[in-house]
TrEMBL record:
Record domain Fe-containing alcohol dehydrogenase-like C-terminal: where: 190-390
Species of origin: Faecalicatena faecalis
Key words of the record: Oxidoreductase
Keyword Signal: no
Keyword presence, 4Fe-4S: no
Residue ranges that the Swiss-Prot or TrEMBL entry lists as coiled coil: none
Domain Alcohol dehydrogenase iron-type/glycerol dehydrogenase GldA: 9-178
Name of the protein described by the UniProt record: Iron-containing alcohol dehydrogenase
Superkingdom of this protein's organism: Bacteria
Length: 392
């Protein structure tokens, strides 16, 4: 097991009706004015936004609001939020939504507290030195951004999707009421489940040995999400299943499943980011569409690890042929994706990129030939192109 640091400063308030505590939670930080940041009209139609406003008013907290966050959150709205916060002297951001809203809130927080263009951080040109404090009312179990140090933003010019990580942006608190996820469409729920699994699988598929405890946590987390995803297909209002998935989402991306590893692979996420940037697809569904092609491309570099995954997670019977066991595990995961109505190819995802577009995806993913990705097997631009081709 490698040396590691584990830092999870986010206070979690979990359970039914917990969104009613929003005002008092914000008040603990002594702020004077809050930006309530949210996505579409669903939080309005459900009455959630009004409940949040009333809670803030009861606590004597002044606020303004900014909606309009979309999946694969846009840099243009981040800029708008930065200017609004500066004008209104906002000193706290309350994100009401899922990963896209939280990521947008983090980017706004960076932009308010640091000089220059916030996009510089996502382009890795410089590092942030601060972020406005952020609180979360979670409505979608998927990204894990409510407890993570990461944020992903899409720049419309060139449709470039980039991520940035810093402990400055970790939310101060996360309110998690599983009931708030019950109105999600089936596709969004299943896409979220895949995202949670992939956050754990990216860390699990690595080159580190002797991690029995971390591996056990990761394996059980993935199996728990798989089990409850199937329950939610049949019974979308099952509170216990919603609760298991919501908590798994936070634990999958707060660093717990990466303790002692080499950091994990993350190539599948990088490959999907470009799909999301170019085609605006749902993140979890995009991950499912490329994962199998990535796994088959790199499995020979780490067959023992894939075989362990196959046996411990997918329930594959272990054979003397390690590669055969590993391949069966990959196939079993793809069967699971399809069983919860997730795609395993780009065609099933609903897109059909041309050869030229695939070349462009590889160009952007490799930062125009300036970087490699992955740790199971280091991938260059040509490797990326081949995986995209296989996934098509």
């Amino acid at each position: 097991m490698n040396q590691f640091q584990y830092y999870t400063p986010t206070k979690v308030i979990f359970g039914k009706g917990t969104e009613e505590e929003a005002g008092e939670l914000v008040k603990e930080y002594g702020c004077k004015k809050v930006l309530v940041h949210y996505g579409s009209g669903s939080v309005k139609k459900s009455g959630l936004l009004d409940r949040i406003f009333r809670s803030l008013e009861t606590a004597g907290i002044a606020y303004i609001s900014l909606g309009g966050v979309v999946p694969n959150p846009r840099l243009s709205l981040v800029y708008e939020g930065i200017e609004l916060c500066k004008k209104e002297e906002v000193d706290f951001i309350l994100a009401v939504g899922g990963g896209s809203v939280i990521d947008s809130a983090k980017a706004i927080g960076y932009g308010v507290t640091n000089e220059g263009d916030v996009w510089d951080f996502y382009e890795k040109k410089r590092t942030a030195q601060a972020c406005l404090p952020i609180g979360v009312i979670l409505t979608i179990a998927a990204a894990g951004s409510e407890m993570s140090d990461s944020s992903v933003i899409t720049k419309e010019e060139g449709w470039i999707k980039r991520g940035y990580s810093s402990n400055y942006c970790r939310p101060k608190f996360a309110v998690m009421n599983p009931e708030l996820t019950m109105t999600l469409p089936e596709y969004q729920t299943m896409s979220g489940c895949v995202d949670i699994m992939m956050h754990t699988m990216e860390r699990y598929l690595n080159h580190t040995e002797n991690m029995e405890l971390t591996d056990g946590i990761s394996e059980h987390l993935i199996r728990t999400v798989m089990k409850n995803a199937k329950i939610l297909l049949a019974d979308p209002e099952n509170y216990e299943a919603r609760a298991e998935v919501m908590w798994a989402g936070s634990l999958s991306h707060n660093g717990l499943t990466g303790c002692g590893t080499d950091g994990g692979d993350w190539a599948t996420h990088q490959l999907e980011h470009e799909l999301g940037g170019m085609f605006d697809v749902a993140h979890g569904a995009g991950l499912a569409a490329v994962w199998g092609s990535w796994a088959r491309y790199v499995v020979e570099a780490r067959p023992e690890r894939f075989a362990q995954f196959a046996v411990h997670v997918m329930g594959v019977e272990e054979s003397e042929d390690v590669m055969q066991t590993a391949q069966k595990g990959i196939e079993a995961m793809e069967v699971f994706f399809q069983s919860v109505k997730m795609p395993i190819t780009m065609k099933e995802l609903g897109i059909s990129p041309s050869d030229e577009q695939i070349a462009e995806l590889a160009e952007k993913c490799s930062f125009f030939g300036k970087r490699t990705i992955g740790c199971v097997k280091m991938l260059d631009r040509e490797d990326m192109r081949r995986i995209y081709m296989d996934a098509r």
